[in-house]
C-alpha cells in the first residue's frame, strides 16, 4: 500500500481557539513604551490605531483566545491547510531524515497572511471602522488585507515598498482585484513620504517607511485604523492556527518533529508554526530545536541589537524591545521583500534572548538553488521568503545524512511563488547576486536608537 503523503484534518477539527505564547514564557517580556514619555503604553495610547478588541489581544496574558465564528467560517475557505511529507525530496537528498512541510500557500492570497488579515478586518468592522491602511513588502500581506477587506466591506489603502512595487506588478493587480488601492512608498500622500522624497526622489523604500505612511494616515482620521501583518503580539496569536493544526496532523502521521524551521522577517509565519510547539515544551513537553532563518542582507536576529526601537522610520509608533538594525536602516532590494524589515517581532526576539530558539542567516542564491530543487521534486514553487526555510530544512536533512540520524524536520512553506516568478527568471538568467550586509548603514541606524535615560 502506498505510504501517506498528505495529512489532512477534517473541517470540524480546525482549532476553535488561538494560542498565546505570553502565557508560557518563563520570563515576562519588556513592556511597550510610549514614544514621547517612555512610559509603558496603555490601551488609550493604542486606540488611534487599533480597535479595542485587538488592543486587548495585544496585551492579554491568557493562554487561549476564542476564534469568532465569522472568522472560523471564512477560514474554512482554505483551512485546515495540509501537512505534507516531502518523500521525493528525502529520496533525492538520500537522507534518513523525514521532512514535512505545512503548506500555507493554499489560501486565496497564496500565503499565511489571511490568518490574521481576516481576523483584523472582522474586529475593525465590528467596531464600525470603514477604512484600513497598511504597508506591504512583497505584497502577500497587502493582498491578504485587500481580500479580507472585500469580505467585510472595508476600504483598504496599501503602501507598498517601492522596489517591491516595481518588482511585483501582479501583486498590485491582485490587490486591485480585491478592491484595494496600492501606492508605491515613499509617496507624496504623507508628510513622512514627502520628507524622504525631498532628500532622495529615487528612494527604493523600506517597510519602516511604508509603516510610517500608513500610520500617519490612520492617526489623523477617526474613521480609519491601521493593520499590521507581522511583528505585533496579536498577529502572532492569530497565526498560531498553523502550529495548532500541525500538532494534530503529526498525531495522524504517528510522528513528532525534532526540528521546526520558519523564515523570519517580522516573525509571523515562524511564530505561527513554532510557538504552539514551543508552548508545549515550556509546559513540560519534549524539547525541540526551533530555527529561525533570515536573509543575510537583512540579518535582524543574527546581527541586530536587542534594544528598544521604533517600528517605523518616522518614529510614529510605540517603542518595543526587539532585535533591530535601526529604524532608519534600508535593506538592499533583494527579492524576498517580505523579509526586508529592520526589526523582529518582540515575541520572537524575546524567545531568542531566552535561548529558546536558534537563528541563522542565508544568502539569496543558495536559497533559490534549494527552492528550485524542492520544486523539481515536490512540485510547489516557494515564495522567495520561504526559500530560506526550504534551505534550512534541506541543510538539516543533509546534516542528518552525514551524522546518520533519522530526525524529523518540519518547516513552514508559508506561501507559493506564483506572483514572484520574475525573481526566478532573474535567478536562471544569472542576474541575482548575493548582497552583503550593510554593516556601516546598520551601525549608523543603531547610533540613532532612542535613549531611554
UniProtKB/TrEMBL annotation:
Q: Which Pfam families match?
A: PALP
InterPro entries according to UniProt: Trp_synth_b-like (IPR006316), Trp_synth_b_CS (IPR006653), Trp_synth_beta/beta-like (IPR023026), TrpB-like_PALP (IPR001926), TrpB-like_PALP_sf (IPR036052)
Q: What is this protein called?
A: Tryptophan synthase beta chain
Q: In which pathway does it act?
A: Amino-acid biosynthesis; L-tryptophan biosynthesis; L-tryptophan from chorismate: step 5/5
Segments forming domain Tryptophan synthase beta chain-like PALP: 76-415
- Describe its function: The beta subunit is responsible for the synthesis of L-tryptophan from indole and L-serine.
Residues the record lists as N6-(pyridoxal phosphate)lysine modifications: 113
- Documented EC number(s): 4.2.1.20
One GO molecular-function annotation for this sequence? pyridoxal phosphate binding
Keyword Transit peptide assigned to the entry: answer is: no
Question: What are the required cofactors?
Answer: pyridoxal 5'-phosphate
Q: Which residues form the signal peptide?
A: none
Output the Gene3D superfamilies linked to this UniProt entry.
Answer: 3.40.50.1100
Quote the subunit structure annotation.
Tetramer of two alpha and two beta chains.
NCBIfam families recorded: PRK12391.1 (NF009057), trpB_rel (TIGR01415)
Record keywords: Amino-acid biosynthesis, Aromatic amino acid biosynthesis, Lyase, Pyridoxal phosphate, Tryptophan biosynthesis
The question of whether Lyase is a record keyword is answered with: yes
Organism encoding this protein = Alloalcanivorax marinus
Q: Which reaction does it catalyse?
A: (1S,2R)-1-C-(indol-3-yl)glycerol 3-phosphate + L-serine = D-glyceraldehyde 3-phosphate + L-tryptophan + H2O
Q: Name one GO cellular component term.
A: cytoplasm
- Family to which this protein belongs: Belongs to the TrpB family.
Amino acid at each position: 500500500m502506498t505510504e501517506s503523503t498528505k495529512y489532512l484534518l477534517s473541517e470540524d477539527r480546525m482549532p476553535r481557539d488561538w494560542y498565546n505564547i505570553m502565557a508560557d514564557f518563563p520570563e515576562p517580556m519588556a513592556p511597550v513604551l510610549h514614544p514621547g514619555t517612555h512610559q509603558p503604553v496603555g490601551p488609550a495610547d493604542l486606540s488611534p490605531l487599533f480597535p479595542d478588541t485587538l488592543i486587548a489581544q495585544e496585551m492579554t496574558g491568557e493562554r487561549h483566545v476564542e476564534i469568532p465564528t465569522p472568522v472560523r467560517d471564512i477560514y474554512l475557505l482554505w483551512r485546515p491547510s495540509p501537512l505534507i511529507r516531502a518523500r521525493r525530496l528525502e529520496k533525492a537528498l538520500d537522507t534518513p531524515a523525514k521532512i514535512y512541510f505545512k503548506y500555507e500557500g493554499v489560501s486565496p492570497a497564496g500565503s499565511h497572511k489571511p490568518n490574521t488579515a481576516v481576523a483584523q478586518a472582522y474586529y475593525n468592522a465590528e467596531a464600525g471602522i470603514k477604512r484600513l491602511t497598511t504597508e506591504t513588502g512583497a505584497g502577500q500581506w497587502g493582498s491578504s488585507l485587500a481580500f479580507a477587506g472585500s469580505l467585510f466591506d472595508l476600504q483598504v489603502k496599501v503602501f507598498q515598498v517601492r522596489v517591491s512595487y516595481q518588482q511585483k506588478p501582479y501583486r498590485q493587480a491582485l490587490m486591485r482585484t480585491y478592491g484595494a488601492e496600492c501606492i508605491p512608498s515613499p509617496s507624496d500622500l504623507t508628510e513622512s513620504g514627502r520628507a524622504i522624497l525631498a532628500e532622495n526622489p529615487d528612494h527604493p523604500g523600506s517597510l519602516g517607511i511604508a509603516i510610517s505612511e500608513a500610520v500617519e494616515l490612520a492617526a489623523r482620521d477617526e474613521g480609519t485604523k491601521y493593520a499590521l501583518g507581522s511583528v505585533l503580539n496579536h498577529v502572532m496569536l492569530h497565526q498560531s492556527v498553523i502550529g495548532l493544526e500541525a500538532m494534530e496532523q503529526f498525531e495522524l502521521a504517528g510522528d513528532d518533529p525534532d526540528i521546526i524551521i520558519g523564515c523570519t522577517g517580522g516573525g509571523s509565519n515562524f511564530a505561527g508554526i513554532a510557538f504552539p510547539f514551543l508552548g508545549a515544551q515550556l509546559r513540560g513537553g519534549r524539547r525541540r530545536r526551533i530555527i529561525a532563518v533570515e536573509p543575510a542582507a537583512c540579518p535582524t536576529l543574527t546581527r541586530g541589537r536587542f534594544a528598544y526601537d521604533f517600528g517605523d522610520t518616522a518614529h510614529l509608533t510605540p517603542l518595543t524591545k526587539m532585535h533591530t538594525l535601526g529604524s532608519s536602516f534600508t535593506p538592499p532590494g533583494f527579492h524576498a521583500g517580505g523579509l526586508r524589515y529592520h526589526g523582529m517581532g518582540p515575541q520572537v526576539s524575546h524567545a531568542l534572548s531566552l535561548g529558546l530558539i536558534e537563528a541563522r542567516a542565508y544568502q539569496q542564491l543558495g536559497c533559490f538553488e534549494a527552492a528550485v530543487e524542492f520544486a523539481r521534486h515536490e512540485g510547489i514553487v516557494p515564495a522567495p521568503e520561504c526559500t530560506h526555510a526550504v534551505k534550512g530544512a534541506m541543510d538539516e536533512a543533509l546534516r542528518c545524512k552525514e551524522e546518520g540520524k533519522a530526525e524529523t524536520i518540519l518547516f513552514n512553506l508559508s506561501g507559493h511563488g506564483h506572483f514572484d516568478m520574475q525573481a526566478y527568471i532573474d535567478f536562471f538568467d544569472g542576474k541575482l547576486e548575493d548582497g552583503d550586509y550593510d554593516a556601516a548603514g546598520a551601525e549608523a541606524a543603531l547610533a540613532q536608537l532612542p535613549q531611554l535615560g
